[in-house]
Amino acid sequence: MTTSTAQEGASEAAAIYPPPQRLVNPENGVKPWCSSMEEYETLYKESINEPTKFWTRVANELITWDKPFTRVSQGSLKDGDMAWFPDGQLNISYNCVDRWALQDPERVAFVYEADAPGEASKVTYGELLKQVCSLANVLTSFGLRKGDTVAIYMPMIPEAAVAMLACARLGLVHTVVFAGFSSSSLAERVADARARVVITADEGLRGGRPIRTKAIVDEALLTCPEVEKVLVFRRTGNEAVAFNPDRDVWWHEAIASQRPYCPPVSVSSEDPLFLLYTSGSTGKPKGVVHTTGGYLLGAAMTLKYVFDIHDGDVFCCTADIGWITGHTYVVYGPLALGSTSVIFESVPTFPDASRYWKLVEDHKITQFYTAPTAIRALRRHGDSYVTKHDLSSLRVIGSVGEPINPDAWTWYNNIVGGGKCAVVDTYWQTETGSHVITPLPGATPAKPGSATFPFFGVELAILDPQTGEELEGNDVSGVLAIKRPWPSMARTIAGDHKRFLETYLRPYPGYYFAGDGASRDADGYYWIRGRVDDVINVSGHRMSTAEVESALICHPAVAESAVVGAPDELTGQAICAFVTLKDGIEATDDVKVELVKEVRHRIGPIATPKTLILVDELPKTRSGKIIRRILRKVVAGEADTLGDLSTLSDPSILDVLISKVAAAL
Ligand code: PRX
Fold first, then answer.
1. 17 C-alpha vs ligand 1 centroid, how far in Å?
2. Burial of 389 (0-12, 13-18, 19+ CB in 10 A)
3. Which end of the chain is more exposed for a tag (fewer CB within 10 A), N or C?
4. Quick check: 574 and 610 in contact, CB under 8 A?
């Protein structure tokens, strides 16, 4: 099991931070949705012991159904045939847009903080409805019908959300690909999803630098002949961007001729809403499938309780819409509650390290949600970037994507939160759709570094990794599993249900296997210990070691490669690649540079190996299998506890390996 460094020092003796009084007894009298542990326990017990009553109530409270459901759920984790509200019908874009536009068209749906400081603008619910409808009509004019897939490869601009919502309005399945992925990664996803249309922009802008978004799409589509149309939003207006009139359509021209109303298509609660590709243990990314009703409920309900959203709140999640966090907490969750969501196009250090905090002050943000990597990076710049801004609007500040080390937690709490906000360390995954382990701001006493307790309806288990037996009671460590289906869980992997079963449901039959190690301390708090598979977590982004290895192998100089995660103070883990070269190729620095370039080209900059070590031999078993465990230990500085080496075919390579790592790291 890989143990996360972020949890070092975490124990049940850790400091406990009670919910801030300011939230529990607010001056304005608006009580948190859940304001004590007793209340949490009552609701949690109801969600587990009386699920039909609980889910019927919340699903009717938070969602407007076109056709009400009569059954809450069916199927089991054992059989992998879970369905929620299966006979209910709804439309997500109606729920996220029309409901609020009809009630209050002037309410702000999105605050758009553009890359250049000072270029903020707002999109009201009334405007959003028109934009979503016009775009839906464009998509219909392309011949798209319910069930077709559309790929979205866009910068962080409101139009990215408009594109998602327009798909949802028609029952189209969207697959958003993070715009930092390379053309070959994009092509792989577009082909796997069988997308017929790609929605993109001419260019992106990040930290003042243009990104060649459309050019990357053009490269990708050289190998995707089935794509019929590319809809291009004009973000920068750079006239040098190539345009193929047989295939490309300008967004602004297309919507100009469309009616700004489009009836929402009512879909089944179990119809797919989106595919989102994520890295697994093998080289090929998985298209995780989320469906409609259960996902929307998970998004809305977690946002309401975990961030304690009330009328007038301005919620800011800094994640890119290319990740699940952007889907659930930039787009679907906030809009399902009729809230205001901030879309942040830039980077936290542009023009300087106060960008986030200026953003909070300028837009009076009430809840702020980011990743530990950003927190750690900004902390290094010093407190003054934070303290010079008025952050008094903040009530809840959240963390997601990787374990947050207690030091970073404390800085976030004291300096950003001013000791007056609740810090919510939310544990979840692309596959879980929404938070599964998390504190509730008005209720849960926090322990820095622990994601605390399960959300409503989530029944957790810690299993012995070898026997699969459930470890009862407190003070136990093992692998994290979930014992019963919950509404926003993924239903399958696109085109490969067998892989879905094998990855999540068969390792421990009857349980959902999360892929993380975890402990439950003496007080029943959950601590996530990091991935137990060949997935590493770099800055909160999931990366498959096999995917990076496959990219390296594509280079003609490479004979073999092995990739592991090395502990990194800033990014949690960093990619460390070991490579052996083909006979006759000299191990030079130039080769190393070439190999790093190869990975960036094949996957994208997020997969850049931080360290690349050329070795003559990789540690292998006598049958020729690479022993990655040894590499992981060596890069973690634990070469003195390598464990059983009896299977290692040539122990004499270890000394060279250890000294090369010591020189490189
Ligand atoms: O290892 C866990 C880590 O991120 C993984 C999920 O990655 P992804 O699907 O990309 O989704 C990230 C955003 C939800 C998990 O298996 N992880 C996520 N949140 C936490 C975390 N590890 C520790 N603490 C967290 N709060």
1. 23
2. middle
3. N
4. yes
